[in-house]
Amino acid sequence: MSDPTDGPRPLVLLAEDDEDVRELAMLALRRTGAEIVAVADGEAAVRAAAERPPRVAVLDVSMPFLDGYEVTRRLRADPATAATRIMLLTARVAEADRARGAEAGADARLDKPFSPSDLARRVTELLEGEGE
Questions:
Q1: Which tens digits make up the pLDDT trace of 5-17?
Q2: How many CB atoms lie under 10 A from the CB of residue 5?
Q3: d(CA 103, CA 125)
Q4: Are 9 and 29 in contact, with CB atoms under 8 Å apart?
Q5: Contact call for residues 29 and 85 (beta carbons, < 8 A)
Q6: Could you give the CA distance from residue 5 to residue 71 in angstroms, rounded to a whole number?
Q7: 42, 63 contact by CB (below 8 A)
Q8: 111 forms bridges with which residues in the sheet?
Q9: What is the reported pTM?
Q10: Contact, 38 vs 22, CB < 8 A?
Q11: How many beta carbons lie within 10 A of that of residue 97, not counting itself?
Q12: Distance of alpha carbon 97 from its chain centroid, rounded?
C-alpha cells in the first residue's frame, strides 16, 4: 500500500511585495506541507504561474506592476492556470473591494493583518478543495 504523502507536493504561489509580510506568510505556508514559490510583484507572479501552474495562489492586492485583481484575471484567462485556487490578501476591507475580488475570480480572501495560523488553515482548505 502506498503512502498518500508520496509524490510531488502541491505548489503554492505567494505574491507579496512587502518583504516582512512575505517572510511571515512563507513561514505560515510551510505548515501546509506544500512547496512554496514566493515572488515580490504581480508580473513575477504571472510569469511564475506560467512556468509552473500552482494549485493555490496567494496574492497581495496592492503590488507593483500588476495588482492582485489583474493577476487573478490573467490566471483565470489562461487555460493552464484557470483552475488554480486563488486567495487575495488585502488591507482593503470595503464591500466594493470584496466585490472586485469576486468579480476578478478569487476563491477566497484574507484581510490584513492576518494570523499566520489562519493563513495556513485557509490555504490548506483551498488545497483540499474547500474554502469560501
A1: 556 899 999 999 9
A2: 7
A3: 21
A4: no
A5: no
A6: 30
A7: yes
A8: 90
A9: 0.91
A10: yes
A11: 17
A12: 17
Whether 132 has a pLDDT exceeding 60, the answer reads: no
Identity at 76, one-letter amino acid code: R
C-alpha cell at 6: 508520496
Here the cell at position 12 is 503554492
**Strand-strand pairing, 35-39 and 56-60:** unpaired
CA 124 to chain CA centroid, Å, is 11
Q: Which residue has the cell 502541491?
A: 10
State residue 76's pLDDT score: 98
Number of residues in the chain: 132
**CA 110 to chain centroid:** 10
3-state helix/strand/coil string of the chain: CCCCCCCCCCEEEEECCCHHHHHHHHHHHHCCCCEEEEECCHHHHHHHHHHCCCCEEEEECCCCCCCHHHHHHHHHHCCCCCCCEEEEEECCCCHHHHHHHHHHCCCEEEECCCCHHHHHHHHHHHHCCCCC
